[in-house]
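Deliverable D4.2, example record:
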Amino acid sequence: RDRIVKVLDFGLAKLAETTPAALDPEAATKALVKTAPGRFMGTVSYSSPEQVEALELDPRTDIWSLGVVLYEMVAGRVPFSGQTANHICVAILEREPTPLSSFAPGAPAELQRIVRKTLAKDRDERYQTARDLLIDLKSLKQELEFAVRLQHSTPPESSGEIGSGAGE
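Output generated by the structure prediction step:
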């Protein structure tokens, strides 16, 4: 409601990284996280296919989760749902999300492409870095701002009359 996005539970890929505790400023925090290999961690609806399959995680996992948030912001619902956590996991692994245009017909095609790319099941087809995603989002923002400026600067259509000078 305050139009501020609050991202609270990202960083699972970072927790999976192996960094020597002596050089890690978050070592105390990591010591408190008790996980076991193959154990699921995270909110199922925002989990990437590699999380669901208990594979090695990397920053592209967080890009997927951000894609879920973007989808939810536009569509008003998460892209993968089900009656149980297991149903959601199957949907994440086997189904494509309903196109955003079904929920938001006015959503720009470029935004739809960006969200689809964040939700690519194959992480090699996903944005490789958050910086790449940011570049596309900034470009989209510029295009939308330009379109608004153009719309406001276009002169009103003429009535078809030519000239209304004094001697006519």
